[in-house]
């Protein structure tokens, strides 16, 4: 079937900073689809890291031939009330903007990314009007709820999230998911036929996400750099790196490693304050979110080791983190907690430590710094895995197959 019009809905991030969604949008554009995206306006960036391109004023912009509608949203960090307010405002904004897009130019496919799993009523409405629905399964929403809320309230919210997850899956003509573990959730927990679920992994573009010439100024005079790049939320494990850094600096007496922590989120200020209280600020650089792609890769290219400190949680255990594919594309080894899908992604490109073992994580970082040949060999393994299997160029065909299945589906 010929390409037509598609509307992509994204609630918990924005384009083009959400690399997976932007890859999907540009791939569909290149395949002949007319693509529109609805997403929140970008959060404020830290000084020195924001490009004027992302200083969103208008509610609508054309970015690389893709029509993008932005809506204002304050992202919740903690508390049931805050999440209810965020999701309610997002639902209202997305409903209104989707109708505006429909009236302007009807879309053949509505492509909804989670979390949260609350937009199935919108999908059902447009299915009634003749559109098809593709569900882009980024995160396990019920597991995320289980981790963030405790007690009786947490159990009730988890059950509600399971219901919304089921209706989201059941409303879809086709499902895109990030790994086989998530596909199993779709088939076994939500009873979707396997031929309607397509695994599209979080891989960077092979020819675009590459290392750049090292800028020694970014190392701030340190011989070695250990680098984290990503969101700094509660489940991302960044706060746990404070104890890792303290052990390396104060217990092992190593003062030759700069810890470069790139990103933003609810834990960033907590990490900064804790580092200051423990007298570790001199060994850490936290530049915030870096939106310029070349500058981001410049920071990553000075790293000797990358960090994947996500602890075991019901969500993390089965998730594929975008950062690990990008780490491997830069060609450097990873120190990670031992999670099923992290191990599948990185394989021999990472050193795996039992989840939550601060001392072993710290020791692994220290050992890697002392073995340059091992770092180089592991980096080559990671680069090869990206180029031969995980890179976006290998993943995009399943995206296009999902669209063909959706168009033909009943």
From TrEMBL:
Residues 19-203 form the Glycosyltransferase subfamily 4-like N-terminal domain. SUPFAM superfamilies: UDP-Glycosyltransferase/glycogen phosphorylase. CDD domains: GT4_WbuB-like. One of its GO terms (molecular function) is glycosyltransferase activity. The lineage of its organism: Bacteria, Pseudomonadati, Thermodesulfobacteriota, Desulfobacteria, Desulfobacterales. This is Glycosyltransferase, family I. It comes from Desulfonema magnum.
């Amino acid at each position: 079937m010929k390409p037509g019009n598609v509307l992509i809905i994204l609630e918990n991030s924005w384009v083009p900073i959400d690399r997976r969604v932007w890859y999907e949008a540009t791939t569909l554009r290149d395949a002949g689809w007319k693509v529109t995206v609805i997403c929140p306006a970008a959060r404020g960036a830290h000084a020195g890291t924001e490009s004027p391109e992302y200083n969103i004023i208008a509610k609508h912009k054309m970015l690389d031939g893709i029509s993008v509608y932005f809506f204002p949203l304050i992202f919740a960090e903690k508390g049931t009330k805050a999440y209810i307010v965020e999701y309610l405002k997002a639902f209202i904004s997305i409903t209104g903007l989707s109708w505006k897009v429909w009236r302007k130019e009807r879309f053949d496919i509505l492509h909804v990314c989670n979390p949260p799993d609350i937009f199935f009523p919108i999908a059902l409405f447009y299915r009634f009007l003749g559109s098809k629905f593709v569900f882009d399964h980024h995160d396990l929403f019920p597991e995320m709820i289980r981790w963030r809320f405790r007690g009786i309230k947490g159990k009730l919210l988890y059950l509600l999230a399971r219901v919304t997850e089921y209706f989201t899956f059941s409303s879809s003509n086709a499902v895109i998911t990030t790994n086989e573990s998530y596909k199993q959730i779709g088939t076994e927990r939500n009873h979707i036929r396997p031929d309607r679920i397509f695994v599209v992994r979080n891989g960077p573009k092979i020819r675009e996400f590459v290392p750049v010439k090292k800028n020694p100024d970014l190392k701030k005079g340190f011989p070695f750099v250990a680098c984290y790049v990503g969101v700094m939320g509660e489940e991302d494990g960044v706060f746990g790196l404070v104890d890792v850094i303290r052990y390396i600096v104060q217990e092992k007496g190593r003062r030759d490693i700069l810890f470069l922590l790139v990103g933003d989120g609810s834990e960033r200020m907590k990490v900064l304050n804790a580092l200051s209280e423990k007298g570790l600020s001199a060994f850490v650089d936290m530049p915030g979110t870096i939106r310029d792609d070349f500058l981001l890769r410049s920071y990553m290219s000075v790293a000797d080791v990358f960090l994947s400190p996500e602890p075991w949680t019901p969500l993390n255990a089965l998730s594929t983190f975008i950062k690990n594919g990008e780490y491997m594309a830069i060609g450097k080894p990873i120190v990670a907690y031992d999670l099923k899908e992290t191990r599948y992604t990185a394989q021999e490109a990472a050193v795996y430590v039992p989840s939550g073992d601060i001392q072993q994580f710290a020791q692994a970082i220290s050992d890697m710094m002392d073995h340059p040949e091992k770092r180089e060999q592991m980096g080559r393994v990671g680069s090869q895995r990206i180029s031969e299997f995980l890179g976006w160029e290998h993943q995009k065909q399943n995206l296009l197959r999902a669209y063909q299945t959706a168009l033909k589906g009943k």
